[in-house]
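Today's session is about reading a structure prediction critically. Students often jump straight to the picture, but the first step is always the sequence itself: look for stretches that repeat, for charged clusters, for runs of hydrophobic residues. Only then move on to the predicted structure, which in these notes is written as discrete structure tokens rather than atom positions. Here is the chain we will use throughout the hour.
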Amino acid sequence: LGDSCSSSGYKRNRAITARRQHLKSVMLQIAATEQEKEKSRREAEKQNYLSEHCPPLHIPGSMSEVQELCKQLHAKIDAAEEEKYDMEVRVQKTSKELEDMNQKLFDLRGKFKRPPLRRVRMSADAMLKALLGSKHKVCMDLRANLKQVKKEDTEKVVGDVERRTSSRKFCMEGGKKMI
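Below is the predicted structure for this chain, in token form.
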């Protein structure tokens, strides 16, 4: 019973695979014919465009006719160059106007490009002198204004702090205060 089911499943999968391959080959054939049609259509469009926009070149036999043809071609080239130059000038002018408007927009918004600043070491006296100029008369020596602490005072404060912390620890441990 198990072998018959597995063999019929195998045959079914094989038939499905063969069907898929057949459909794939048919689709590829259709795509190839469509591609050929598209290629021929584009070639016909190209020929129509060239026949409309580029008349066939007829080369005259005499030298004066050739010179006249060259003059006409040069005139067309000059006209095209002038048009190209005019377009470039318009583009430059428009881009300049855009830059100016962007700058005005940034000015109105209040967003300015900050220049990269260098760190300058300057004392407080030098800073006040730079800001106030000759009006600066006060000396701001900050270190001189610091309070002088004697060594005895610091030992006294440290001993007092140690005594307080040790008595708190003693109280927290459940002992009685001894002070």
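Discussion point for the tutorial: The radius of gyration is 48 Å.
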